[in-house]
Automatic annotation (TrEMBL), chains A, B:
Domain of life: Bacteria
Name this polypeptide is given: Undecaprenyl diphosphate synthase
GO biological process, one term: polyprenol biosynthetic process
Keyword Chloroplast: no
Source taxonomy: Bacteria, Bacillati, Bacillota, Clostridia, Eubacteriales
Family assignment from sequence similarity: Belongs to the UPP synthase family. Z-FPP synthase subfamily.
Organism: Desulfotruncus arcticus DSM 17038
Pfam families: Prenyltransf
Keyword Transmembrane helix on entry: no
GO molecular function: ditrans,polycis-polyprenyl diphosphate synthase [(2E,6E)-farnesyl diphosphate specific] activity
Keywords, ordered alphabetically: Transferase
Length: 224, 224
């Protein structure tokens, strides 16, 4: 399918790439072997967004909740996140990784992305949530209150740990589940959700075009 | 339709009763006349939840964002919220109203529900969000930090303004839009969403049963 024409595109898309373990089981593999199958879809989505001129894209890597899973799965999704960031670090994007850096569960190889790093022609901002937790994110503004810097603006968005990630217009979730699962609660306040029943490793370009076509038909009110 | 049998029911349901203004326009009325048409559906839903034994139900009344709308609409939705709470105050429920009480936009008649009040046989907990704002809700924990009570537990849920409202299992939104629009971001972290395309004043019992039947098929992982 060639790229359709869009009248109105989201400025920032959040991606919840769910279903890797279910895909592995369906295909006779061990659960943890599903994560590597999510890398190519991620690169494909990156390329589609660049082609369309989408300015910002956020991937839900793994969460602090997820790290309660068996060690072999934990290792596999940590490695998949490291691989994904490294693949994108050779392209035309700026990369930021957001998550609890202080924990041993945060992969050391990604510490250099605590601050946004720019590569190539810097065509798109990409954010990765790695060892992310919504409580960790929101709790950050305790520091701001303690330092008394909160009072100056009283703007929550500026003081959460993910403050460099902007408001999300469209969230696309693969794997059929209709929930946020802790994905950036502040940036998701007004987001439109689109659910794709297929599992993330079964990514097709058409999934993404359908989501964008649906998004075009939604009005934006921000509660007004 | 008689009530189907359910194997697994949500303990707490959030309701986003959207589409009153669109319903009014579709039916040749002024936009503000739609809100009163939302009262009967609310009572019907209350009765269905009592019949099923659902322990907690939260209605999205109006938000601080909504109060930017024309004065005539503002008056109408404020009145509809007052009427809804009064109708339920004669039944078998405990009622709590949560929102920015300090603002003149908060209806005075509802101030007595700042603390939960119990009526009749107290069969269900009902929460109403009235002049609610997600920023108002989250900002409340600044007070906790300033009073140094936060450090004792570091549990965000206990310190937000809506801390008396528990985690939501299922959110049902009428009116076709697939977004949270600022609805209780902390309690919605793991909620399943079900969207009904019909507008809220066109509420049918079947809408709700469909949502519950769908909910039964979802697994609960809480990210694990």
């Amino acid at each position: 399918m060639t790229c359709p024409k869009f009248g109105r595109l989201p400025k920032h898309i959040g991606v919840i790439p769910d279903g890797n373990r279910r895909w592995a089981v369906n295909n006779g593999l061990a659960k943890q072997d599903g994560y590597q199958k999510g890398l190519d879809p991620g690169m494909m989505l990156y390329e589609m967004c660049v082609e369309l001129g989408i300015p910002e894209l956020t991937f839900y890597g793994f969460t602090q909740d997820n790290t309660k899973r068996p060690a072999v799965q934990k290792k596999a999704f940590q490695q998949a996140c490291v691989d994904a960031v490294k693949m994108l670090a050779n392209r035309d994007a700026s990369l930021l990784v957001v998550g609890d850096y202080s924990s041993p569960l945060f992969p050391k190889e990604l510490l250099e992305f605590k601050q946004r790093k720019t590569f190539g022609r810097d065509l798109i901002k990409i954010n990765f949530l790695v060892n992310y937790g919504w409580k960790w994110d929101l709790s950050n503004f305790i520091n701001a209150v303690e330092k008394n810097s909160f009072k100056k603006t009283r703007n929550i968005n500026e003081h959460i740990a993910s403050s460099d990630i902007s408001r999300i217009d469209l969230i696309v979730r693969w794997g059929g589940r209709r929930r946020l699962s802790g994905f950036l609660p502040v940036q998701s306040i007004y987001s439109d959700f689109y659910i794709i029943d297929d599992l993330w490793p079964d990514f097709k370009k058409n999934h993404f075009y359908e989501a964008l076509q649906w998004y075009e038909t939604q009005d934006i009110t921000l509660g007004g």
